[in-house]
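Journal club prep — side note

Before the paper discussion, L.F. wants everyone to see what a predicted structure for a comparable chain looks like in token form. Sequence:
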Amino acid sequence: MEVGRPINQDEILNNYPLKNAVTMNIHLRKYMLTYYKKLIRDVQQTITAIENELETKE
């Protein structure tokens, strides 16, 4: 593939390293999204636990 010219879809489908890289990128993004969702949920649970603890101390 030369630099600077448009890539057609057949070329992507026939170019396995590029196809694998695109697939890998999609899987990585899905994994990171799942990871961040879990992280956010954990942080929210921690905040809720701290709020509950503060309410019981008052």
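L.F.'s comment for the group: Residues 9-57 form one domain. Keep this in mind when we get to the figures.
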